[in-house]
Amino acid sequence: MRLLAVCAIFFCLAGQPEAAPADEILLLEVSVNGRQTQTVLQFTRRAGKLFVSPDELQSAGLRLNTTSKEQVDLSSIAEDFQLDMAAQKISIRVRPDLLNTTQLNTATSESETVALADKYPGALLNYDVLASQSGGSKAVSALAEARAFYGPHVFSSTGLTYAHEGKTNSLRLDSTYTYSNPNSLQRYRLGDFISNGLPWSRPVRMGGIQLSTDFALRPDLVTFPTPDLRGEAVVASNVDLFLNGIRQLSETVPPGPFEIRRPPVATGAGTMSIAVTDALGRQTFRNIPFYASEKLLRDGLLSYSIEAGSIRKNYGLQSSDYGGAATSASVRYGWSPTVTIEGHAEATSGLRQAGIGATSAFHEWGVLSAAVSGSATADNLGRQYLLGFERRAANASFSISKTQADRHYRDIGAMFGIPVPRSLLTMSMGLYSQKYGSFNLAYTSARTTLPGTESMPELRPLDADIISFSYFKSLFNRTNFFLTGYKNRTDHSYGLTVGLLMALGEKDSVSSTYTSGSGLRNFSLQASRPANLVGDIGWQLQDNEGDFTQRLAEFSYRSNAARASFAVAQNGNLLSQRANVRGALVWADNSLFLSNWVDDSFAVVDTNGVSNVAVYAENRLVGRTDQRGKLLIPDLRAYEANKISLDLRDLPLDVQVGASEFTIKPQDRNGVVVRFKLAKSLGVRIILKDSEGKFLAVGSTVKLKQGGHTAIVGYDGETYFPELQIEGTLEIITASGAVCRLDPGSIPQNETIPVIGPLTCK
């Protein structure tokens, strides 16, 4: 019986299944497609399979289309894997599309990384004064701009004054307050401005308020569509990007997809080429033709302009002739990478006008534009249509545009006396060759009707039918040949000019031209040197002979304070003279400066009182600091990086400098202050000897007890302490422990860098 019980128990145990083995946790160093990821992932070995979480795979550069946190079977996503338990490593091979996309950037504009300069209040007065005398008649005219600014806030007013034969007339041109916001690309104007528009609308001068998008606030921003450059590397490879055959980028990428963001693109037709080369030298090459145009907006990009106010009339003749309320609005939107849509509307008393248009990329051949607009007045409805095509390439260009309006079509300009062209056709063609030169041909045909007068109430036509051409060819020894001509088929006038232009050295040039047209013939010979930089002396000599005789001699000089010129001319038997001064008076950094005309932004360089220091802008010498240690640079570029630097060789030996170079990004029509931290050094040179009267060894160190400054001993026992604190007896300790004592009263005070010694260290 006992035997039977034992057998029963044995058979019962044998019939039960074995317990499942426990999961095994593995920590493995991972490589993917032959590339070491420098990561250690946690795997779970279960029933002979490896499982891993999606988060772990993501840290190794893989991406899974799942939001689940559950572990996945490695064999379900990997094409193959090799496990090396002895080395605790695993090599995984997956499809390239499962790898993270590598982002490649072409050269980043320095303007993107430089912050806007600090705000500084200031004001300036630009002036351009011309005095002339001809045949006993004297005249003086002056153009001026008054400007005040503080960061994004700018107020500017321009005016013109003219004095002749005892009479003086003054005229205001524009007065405008402007607020600019580079972050939102918005610009607001209050005062006088020109309305924005589209190629098929006409801008007008207004006084009022304007809100608009201004891409000039971000010069680094690419507003038009660029090619979508994507690729895939099976193994670690080198990616080269070429634009029209010129290398723009060379980067190493890991296995997987890659994307080149914001490639450099020149407008017009071109070809992007991507070369992918692996470690074995195998290369794949892909050409991507494209057409880039500033007439298109990048996908999703929006620009607009809204204006409201009064129409400015008799501009340049009267200071404040405003009449007729008007408003207008324009908008452009990047609908897709190939289509930009646009719209425009405007209104004034008795007029409502609106239109829509679109510009589309026509494959890689060019851009096609179309627009239609309509107007409504009290009596009539009018329509206008536009159709155009443009192609530009490195060796050829072509464009054609046709605008057609019926006799009832009106816009704001037409309501204030500027008629709408009923028909406007423009065509142009260009051929460019380094060997044969460049040739351009243009044709313009316009049909316009002008409102009649009281004596001629009927409409009077004003037509133009002009064909023109130009040819330019570089010859030899910096000599260029040019030929231009035109023919107006409406009034049968014509003109032809042929000439040679030769550059002599870096600045001088000579030219000769022959002109014939409408019964007049003339030959001209000219030699000149411009005064573009501070310190330049310029001159111009000109002689015209033929049906029109003129001789001219002009001399000019440009300083930090202004540009001045004087000219003598002979026109037939009439002798005339003129003198011109063009410059600016600037108040900034609590200082007054005389400067050249300030078109955009400027900088005040402050060297903390150190005079006669050479200052450079973009490695170009722009002047030297004055007795106050200041210099004004009048020609900076707003919203772009501008490098300002000093010539350290000009600094006295006893002057120390922190940074010798700054990169600044000024705001629009503003002034910034660039402060270089120059300070007079309290340093001295001390000659040291040991107790035996020998100079201390070259390269040995000594230490100043007061302050702990350490210095190296040079030849003849000489050492230098840049900041010597003169308080009580100074003690210098050598490496051997010997002490040299110095009485401050023995330090010469009338030397740039005093020399003391020799001192004996005991």
TrEMBL record:
GO molecular function: fimbrial usher porin activity
Secretion signal, residue range per the UniProt entry: 1-19
Pfam families the record matches: PapC_C (PF13953), Usher (PF00577)
Organism: Undibacterium pigrum
Span of domain PapC-like C-terminal: 688-742
Family annotation (Gene3D superfamilies): 2.60.40.2070, 2.60.40.3110, Outer membrane usher protein FimD, plug domain
GO CC terms: cell outer membrane
This protein's name: Outer membrane usher protein
Upper lineage: Bacteria, Pseudomonadati, Pseudomonadota, Betaproteobacteria, Burkholderiales
GO biological process, any: pilus assembly
Keywords: Signal
